[in-house]
Amino acid sequence: MIDISIAGASGYTGLELIRLLLKHPEVRFSTLTSETYAGKSIAEVFPSLEGHIDHKLVPLSENIGNTCHILFLALPHTTGMKWMPQFLASPCKVIDLSADFRIKSAEIFEQWYHTPHLQPDLLPKAEYGLPEFHRNAIQSARLVANPGCYPTSVILGLAPLIIEGLVNLDSLIADSKSGVSGAGRKASLSTQYSECNEGVSPYGLGNHRHTPEIEQELTRLANRDLNISFSPHLIPMTRGMESTLYAKLKKEISTSALQEIYQRFYQGEPFVRILKPGSFARTGNVVYSNYCDIGVTVDSRTGRAIITSALDNLIKGASGQAVQNMNIMQGFGERTGLDFPAIFP
Amino acid sequence: MIDISIAGASGYTGLELIRLLLKHPEVRFSTLTSETYAGKSIAEVFPSLEGHIDHKLVPLSENIGNTCHILFLALPHTTGMKWMPQFLASPCKVIDLSADFRIKSAEIFEQWYHTPHLQPDLLPKAEYGLPEFHRNAIQSARLVANPGCYPTSVILGLAPLIIEGLVNLDSLIADSKSGVSGAGRKASLSTQYSECNEGVSPYGLGNHRHTPEIEQELTRLANRDLNISFSPHLIPMTRGMESTLYAKLKKEISTSALQEIYQRFYQGEPFVRILKPGSFARTGNVVYSNYCDIGVTVDSRTGRAIITSALDNLIKGASGQAVQNMNIMQGFGERTGLDFPAIFP
Amino acid sequence: MIDISIAGASGYTGLELIRLLLKHPEVRFSTLTSETYAGKSIAEVFPSLEGHIDHKLVPLSENIGNTCHILFLALPHTTGMKWMPQFLASPCKVIDLSADFRIKSAEIFEQWYHTPHLQPDLLPKAEYGLPEFHRNAIQSARLVANPGCYPTSVILGLAPLIIEGLVNLDSLIADSKSGVSGAGRKASLSTQYSECNEGVSPYGLGNHRHTPEIEQELTRLANRDLNISFSPHLIPMTRGMESTLYAKLKKEISTSALQEIYQRFYQGEPFVRILKPGSFARTGNVVYSNYCDIGVTVDSRTGRAIITSALDNLIKGASGQAVQNMNIMQGFGERTGLDFPAIFP
Amino acid sequence: MIDISIAGASGYTGLELIRLLLKHPEVRFSTLTSETYAGKSIAEVFPSLEGHIDHKLVPLSENIGNTCHILFLALPHTTGMKWMPQFLASPCKVIDLSADFRIKSAEIFEQWYHTPHLQPDLLPKAEYGLPEFHRNAIQSARLVANPGCYPTSVILGLAPLIIEGLVNLDSLIADSKSGVSGAGRKASLSTQYSECNEGVSPYGLGNHRHTPEIEQELTRLANRDLNISFSPHLIPMTRGMESTLYAKLKKEISTSALQEIYQRFYQGEPFVRILKPGSFARTGNVVYSNYCDIGVTVDSRTGRAIITSALDNLIKGASGQAVQNMNIMQGFGERTGLDFPAIFP
C-alpha cells in the first residue's frame, strides 16, 4: 500500500485520477490540492464522489512530496515546473500529466509554448511515459512526463509503420478528432455548450503544441528525422479521441499482412487492441477504458496505409496512462486498477 | 463463486449486466443467449468487451436454468414468461428485468400491456425487487421482478412523503426525463439519432405502462389507494433519468426539516444519497453508478414538496439493481461489484 | 422602410434579431452595439453572417434612439434600464428583451432580482409584449417589455384553462425543460460543454426569477390571485424549450373537448398551433420558427389537464417575439419576416 | 412561376427541398410522392410544416413529369432510374439528388454500387450539378445529377490547387467528418441515437462510394488522371460536414498567397466563402445555409496545403444545391430562395 498525492485535483484529469485510484488496491490518498477550491472537500466540488472520498482540498505546497510515494501533477502547463526541484528532493516519485517535461529540448519547448522553461537541467531526468515503448526506463524513473492525448493516439498508431520501415517518413499525416473534455475544466467562451455543440471545428492546424511531441517521439523510434502534418479537430462529444493516420507505403502489402504486423508488434501489450482487418477504430468501443484500439487498412488504390486509432482522452490519453506508469514504477501488475472494459452505450 | 446466465445478452441491459458482473468477485458466466446474434461471440457483437469475455451466444432454451445459480432475463417484455415454469422448475433463481412479473394483477397487466399474461399463477411468487423496501422478501425469493427505471426513480423519491403521511395522496405528480438508451437496442425510426437529437419529446402522458407499477408500489407503501399523474419525456442524452416529483404538503414544513426526514428514512441505504437542502438531483452526478440521488425542496409559496430524483437508467434503473438483488438473494455484501462512484464528466 | 438599432448585438438574442431582421422587408439596420467587441464588425464576431451584413459594432450611447425608429435592447438584465428615460425622450420606440420592465411592481422586481429598480416611474408605461393577449396595447406602446422564454411557454399553455375557468387556481404546476442557449453567450463553468452535456439539471426550483412574471400575467388573465410551482431544467440541447403544465380540472372533460376549447381560444393566432388530441408538443417541430405548439391531454384517471407547450427559446421565446411585437407596433403584417416553418431535422 | 414536384418527399432531402421551396418566390408545388406515407398529408409526416403546406402524398408514377416544370428526385440510390426515360419523355426537367447519374461510366458505377446501371444510354445526357464548375452546361441540361455531399465539400476545397497546378496529384487526401442526417431517414441500428451519440466512427475508408465521384470530377478539372484517399467519419451531430484536405505543394508558397489564389478563383461565386488566412472552416458557421466555407493553410514545415471545407450536408450538400441548380436551369437569380445566412448557435 502506497500513499499518493494529486496536485490539481479539481480538474478533469485530477478527478479521473481520483476515480481510478479509488478502486486501485495498492494505494491510499494522502494530499489533494486545488487553489480554486482550497478549504472545500473534494466531494463538494464533485458530488459524483459523494460517499467514496471526503478529503479536504489544500493549496499546493513545495513540500507535498514528503508525504507520498507518488505525486501526480495534474496542473495546467507551466504551473508545476517551478517547484519540480523541491518535489524531486523529497522521497517521492513524480508523474507529471502536463507538457512541461515532455519535450527534451528547452528551446523547442519555448518555441511552441511561448514561455521559458524553468528547469532545463531536469529535462534529461524525465522519461516520456509511453509504456509500450519505454517500459524499462519508466520503471526506474524518478520523473515521468505523461504523454499528451493526441501524441498517445498518433504514436501508437504510426509506430509499427515507422519502426518496421514500411512507409516514407515524409508522408506522415495525422487527422485527429477530440471530445471537448480535452480542453480542461475552466470557463471559456469557445467551449461553452452552445458554441461547440452540433459543430466540428478544426483548430491549430500546422501549429498545435502536440506536434513537436509527436515528432520527437517518432524520430526517436525511427532513429531518423521526420516531421508530420498534425490536424486536431474539436467535435461535439465529451470524451474520446480518434486519429486517422496516413502514410505512403514503400511497397505493396495487403491489409491482412499489415494487420498481422501490427498484431505481432503489440503482442502482449495489455492496453493496445489491434482490430480485425477491415475494422476501424471507434471511440465508442474504448471510452471509459484504458484501451487504445487500432484499425489497420491498406488503401491499395493510392498505396497508403490508413490507420485508425481510438482512445479515451482522459484515460489512456491522460489519467489511466498515469496509473499505468505508476504501476510500472512501483512494480504493481500493469493492469492493476485498470482492468475494466469500455462502457457502451 | 456462483454461475450466472443472461437471457438476452445482446441488448443494452444484457450488456450492462455482463460489464458489471465481469468485475463481480463472486460470479462466473455460464450461458449468454441471443436470438439475433446466436453463433457469434459476445465480443463480436460488442467490441467494447474484447479481451474480457469471449462467450459464444446461443439461442435461449427452456432448460437454461439447469446450469446456473442465477438466471437474469434481459428480454423484451412478454417474451420470457412463456418458459417461466421451466425456469423455476430448475434449481436456479430468476431475476427478470422485464415488466412481466411486476404487476401483481394479471388483469391490470393485460389492460396496460395489451396482451394476455401467460403465467398468472406465478405472479404471487414474484417479489418486486426494490431493495430499499423489500430486502427481506427478496432474500428468500425464487423470482424477483426487477423494477422499471421510471418506477425506481419515482418510488424512491416519493416514498418518504407517503409513508410519513406528509402529503395529500391525490396530489402526486411525476415529471420524468429519460435518456434514449431506455428505448433499448433495436432499429426504430423514432429513436434514430437525427430524429431525437436536439429535441425534447413528451410521450405516453397519462397512459405510460410504468404508471400502474408506480401506483401499485406506492399504494402498498401507503396502505391506501392512490393514483399519480406520470409524464415521461425523451431527452437527447444516452443515459440518465431524472424525475421531478410534486406533492401537496398537509402542513408547513421547512426544506431542512423535510431533508432531515429523508436522510433519516434512507439512513444506511447503500445506494440512496440524500442531497443537502437546496441541492437538486442531477443525472451528471450518478451516471455509470448504482446511486439514486434525491434532492428535497419545499416550495413554501405553494405548499408543495418538490423532490428531484436522479439515477442511471441502465444501472440503478435496470442492471445494477438486478446485481444488487442478486447480492441480496445470495447473501453477498449488497455493494459487492457495485461499489464505484459515478463518472463525470 | 424603418431604421432599427440593436443594443447588445453580440449576444445570442442580438444575433438572432439580426438574422431575422436581415430578411425582414420593411427594416434596415442603423446601429449595432457591443461593449466587448466594439470596433469589430459584426461578421467578425459571428462569421455565420459573412456576406450579409458588415456593420461595425459601437459601444451603447444614451442617444442611440435618435437614429432609429425601433430600438431593441438585447442586454443583460438591469444594464439597459439606466438610460431608459433618454431612450424614451428620443423619437424611437423601445422593445426591451431583458426582464427590466416585465414586472409591474418595483418591489417584487427587487425581491426576485436582488437589485433596486432604477426607473419605477416608467414601469406603468411598459406593455408586456405577449401579442396573443395584449395586441392592442402593444400597438400603441412606446416601450414593450418582451416576455421571458419560460413565461411565454407557460402562459400560452395555461391561459385557456384559466380564462375559461376550467381548473383550480391553486393546482398549477409548470415543469419546464430548456436548451442551454437560454443561458446566454458568456464564459461560465456551469454551461461548459463537458459540464452540461449528457445530463439533465433541475435548477432554481421554487425561486426562479420567471416565477413572478408568470404569476403576474396569469393573475391578470384570471382576474384573481394565484400562484404556481415553476421548475426549470437544463437539458443537453442548444435550442428549444418545452413546458409540461399540470392543473386540476374542476369537472370532467374529454381530451377532445378540451382540445376544441384550445383551438377556438387561439383561432386566428398566427403563431400558436394547437395539436390534435393525443399529440404532445415536441421542440423538434418548432425550433428555428416563431411557433408555439400546444398539446392538450386530459389525464382522466387523476382529473388533471396536462398541457405540453414547445417553442424555440431564442425565437418565440425572445427575438422572434420581439420582431412580432415590432410588426404590431409599426402596423406591418404580423407574420412579416417570421413566416417560415421550423427546421427538422 | 413554375410547378415543381418532388419524388421522395418524406426523406430528409425531400423535406429540405420542401422547406426551401416554400420560401422560393418563383415556384409552386405540384406533386409530392412517398411510398411509405402515401395517403397522408406531408404535414402529418412532418408536423414542422403544419400551417405551410398540406399536400397529400401519392405514390410515384411514371408520368409525374407531365404536371411539373422541374422534377426533383430525392429517392434512395437506384430506385428512380428505372423510369428516367419516361421522366425525360415528359416536358419536365429533372434534378436527381441520388447518385444514379453522377458517374459517367456505367462500369464504374456497377463496380462501386454493386448493381447494374439500368440507363447507361442516358448517362451522357446528365450534367454533374456543381454550379461552380458547370454553370453553363447546367443551364441547358434536361437532367442534372446533383452532387453528393462529400464530393461537394472535397471538390470545392481541392479544385483551385489542382486547376492552378500547385500540388502533386498523387498526394491528395480527404479526411471528412459528417453529421448523422447524411445517413437518411430510415430505421437502422447503426444510426440509433444510443449507438452513435458521443462517439466518432470512421467508415468506408478506401472504399466509400463517393470516391469515384470525387476522382471523376477532379480528373475532369485536372485534365489528368488522379486518385485520392477518401476517409469519411460519422460524428455525433445532426447536420454539417467538414473535410480536411491534404496535398503536397510543388513549391513553397505562403498561406496568404495561397489564400489570395483561392479568393480570386472563387471571385463572384455566390455560395463559396474563402476565409481569412489562418482561419479554419467550421460547420457552425454554415449550417442551415447554402454556403461552403473554405479555409486555406500552408503547413510550411511539411510543404503541404491543408484546406478545410465546411457545408451543411442537407443544403449545399444536397437540397440547397438542387435549388441552386434549378435557379440556373430556369434563369432565376442564382441566390433566389437561398439568400439567407447560416444559423448560429
List the helices and strands and how they pair.
The structure is a homotetramer of 345-residue chains.
Chain A: E1 2-7, H1 12-22, E2 27-33, H2 42-45, E3 70-73, H3 84-89, E4 93-96, H4 106-113, E5 126-128, H5 131-139, E6 143-145, H6 149-163, E7 173-178, H7 193-196, E8 201-202, H8 210-222, E9 229-234, E10 241-248, H9 255-265, E11 272-274, E12 292-299, E13 304-311, H10 315-330
Parallel strand pairs in A: 1-2, 1-3, 3-4, 4-6, 5-6, 7-9, 11-12
Antiparallel strand pairs in A: 7-10, 8-9, 10-13, 12-13
Radius of gyration of chain A: 20 Å
From the structure provided, what is the oligomeric state, counting identical versus distinct chains? homotetramer
| Low-confidence parts of chain A | none
Shape of chain A: globular
Supply the CATH superfamily name of the largest domain in chain A. Answer: Dihydrodipicolinate Reductase, domain 2
Biggest interchain interface, per-side counts: A-D, 49 and 50 residues
Number of domains of chain A: 2
Main CATH class of the largest domain in chain A: Alpha Beta
CATH architecture designation of the largest domain in chain A? 2-Layer Sandwich
Largest sheet composition of chain A? 7 strands, mixed
